[in-house]
Amino acid sequence: MSETVSAGQKALQLNLDTTWYGTFAEIGGGQEVARWFFAVGGAAGTVAKTISAYDMTVSDGLYGKSQRYVSRERLEQMLEHEYTGLQESLGPVRGATTTFFVFADTVATRSYARRVDGDGWLGITFQHQPGSDPSRILLHTRLLDPEAKGQQEALGLLGVNLVYAAWLLLRGDLDGFVLRLGEEISRDRLEVDFIDVSGPVFADVDVRQLNLELVLSKLTPVVAFESDGSPVEASRALYKRAAFVLRDEFLPARDVHRLMLNAARDQLAQPEDGGRAVTLAEISLTNPLAPTAAAVDDLLARLDGLATAGLATLVTDFEELFRVAVYLRRYAVPRVVFVVGTRTFSLFFGGRPFETLEGGVLEALGRLLTRTVRIALYPEHDPLTGTPVNARTMPLPSEYHHLREYLFANGLLHELSAVPLG
Fold first, then answer.
1. 174 and 270 in one domain?
2. What is the CATH classification number for the domain harbouring 122?
3. Geometric angle at alpha carbon 96, from 79 and 9, rounded to 5°
């Protein structure tokens, strides 16, 4: 991958390519991407139209009703409406010599009334050559700057990067596509936590791989996958759902993994879960590799196994387990239960997993076991005797026996009953 080109240079390159021509449509708190193309000069070479809508009634009048204004549904309405209009108005005049595109975003940034992280959907529909069927890229982003101005600036950079990356795809340059999305943007300013692609340019692309590269490239700490293995935007999968989480390498995924999660969900169900609790396999990449073919292929194989087992999955770059719980709280997850085998749990008390913490095991448990987080212990078999290791009698250093009883007595640990295989 070549050296980084600045946002201004990208916008100017695009403006000077008179065969790349299209519309910018931005609603809500966006309003930042088209400005780059006007600021560098030569915008007449690229910009057919810009449209900006802030009022929801105006937005509905343009694109129709939507249940949520910052949503994939609204973004797709925008792209379809504007692309159809562009083709109808300019197709007969320029269609033989022009590759048309439409960029759109719908975003909520911080405001006087909204003091939370920004949230946005961005997308581009584009032809790879004149007259071709369109391809499409959709992204979801979280904007993390503490003030609206910073969130808007980061959004502008991300939008330019997206348009430029799509333009490079016309030249068959898919290498480094995901990395380009984050150019010139500090990783503490935004996250891109979901990507979807379609159309002829992406005919041979595995969209799961693109989502894995978001984590491997440090554009997000977490990507989520449905139980069938398809990528999903995290809030759609997690919002206000109790979560039962099993961390493992899943090399390979086994029936016991599914049994452990289902046992925890079934045995610890609460009425307030409303039957909507989600079970999650978590793969932690504690020191993420560069997104090499070998690293990605390994992860894809693990996702295949988890999909076969019917397990929804989080791929994270969190080393400490408590960070998973902190992440889940973003989505108003009411409670988190980490499912751990008894032998695995007993190894925690050897000290080595927590040797970097001044408070050792006690500090680690204090960080993890907050008001809404619990641990469920599933009987694992002793490899020598083949008998199940009971949660209350699992071997621990003697100094931790009282701690174990304290955790049980206060409902911080739960013992699960084993479920027969088969």
1. no
2. 3.90.950.20
3. 60
CA separation for the pair 65, 211 (Å, rounded): 29
Instruction: Tally the domains of the chain.
Output: 2
Given this model, what pLDDT does residue 41 score? 96
Cβ-based burial of 55 (10 A; exposed 0-12, middle 13-18, buried ≥19): exposed
* C-alpha–C-alpha distance, residues 351 and 358, integer Å: 11
| Contact criterion met (CB below 8 Å) for 140 and 127 | no
pLDDT class for 112, splitting at 50, 70, 90?
Answer: low
What is the three-state SS of 103-134? EEEEEECCCCCCCCCEEEEEEEEEECCCCCCE
What's the mean per-residue pLDDT of the chain?
92
Q: What are the pLDDT digits (tens) for 346-359?
A: 888 875 656 677 88
Task: Give me the residues paired with residue 12 across strands.
Answer: none
DSSP string, 56-98: HHHHHHHH---S-SSSHHHHHHHHHHHHHHHHHHHHHHHTTT-
Residue type, 85: G
pLDDT on residue 31: 81
Secondary structure of the chain: what % helix, strand, coil (to 5)?
40, 25, 35
Question: How does pLDDT run across 143-199, given as a tens digit for each residue?
Answer: 999 998 999 999 999 999 999 999 999 988 788 999 999 999 998 999 999 999 999
Q: What is the pTM of this model?
A: 0.93
The number of beta carbons lying within 10 Å of the beta carbon of residue 155 is 28
- Identify whether residues 253 and 155 lie together within a single domain: no
416 alpha-carbon distance from chain centroid? 31
Q: Which two tokens stand for residue 32?
A: 């930042």
Amino acid of residue 169: L
Q: Are 209 and 197 a contacting pair, CB within 8 Å?
A: no
Final residue of a domain: which of 186, 205, 224? 205
